[in-house]
Amino acid sequence: MKFMVAFSSPKRSAKTVGVAAQHAKALNAELVLLRVIPDPHKVGVVAELIATERPMEKAQEQVNDVSTQLREQGINASGMVTVGEVAPGIIKVAQELKVDMLFVGTTSVSKHPFFLMKKDPVVHYLVDHCPLALCLVRHEDSPDETE
Length: 147
Fold this sequence. Notes:
The protein has 147 residues and is α/β, with parallel strands linked by helices. It has a single domain, classed as 3-Layer(aba) Sandwich (Rossmann fold), CATH 3.40.50.620. Helix content is 46%, strand content 23%. It contains 6 helices and 5 strands; from the N terminus they run E-H-E-H-H-H-E-H-E-H-E. Strand 1, helix 1 and strand 2 form a beta-alpha-beta unit. It is globular.
């Protein structure tokens, strides 16, 4: 059995990783952390002009650190970082790896949404398009938490 976590950062993904790790440990499943970095060439001219390797390096470092912590807990964990469209990229890698379940973090819809956006576009894309089993892990928003 193989599980995957759509990983964004150690802090933002901590609860999702924790839930997935509990399931992986209980079922002796493999756990893959996946971080998809948006392709600067497709985001826009300014992003392309200022693009460096730093985001990719930082993401890989974070994924490796969390994977190592999971392995120290006895979980068969690995991590990977890719570049591309985030939501379609998550689905593509999950299908290529033949993942049984995808764990995705989501926040509560607050009374005062940020810039009137009530929905997380990545989560909603995954709910609408992912052919795999999804486990949505709700993260409660707190006033002192920065996204």
